[in-house]
Write a structure and sequence with these properties.
Elements: H1 5-11, H2 17-25, H3 31-39, H4 45-52
Helix pairs in contact: 2-4, 3-4
Length: 69
Amino acid sequence: MKLNFWVYALSYKWATAEMVKEAIAYDDCSIEDIRKGVETGYITKEEFQELTSELYEENLKGRGFKENL
């Protein structure tokens, strides 16, 4: 899977969270890119929350889970 440069940069400590936030603001990196980073293990759920100010929620649809528990 090909990931956005900023996902790799954060994972390998080439960039700080503040730098990635700037990249998001300039549309060099999207929230979806960050989400893919979490799904592949390059970014933690905590980093996702720090970068996006949102809680990371796994997509449970299609995995046998009910939507409204």
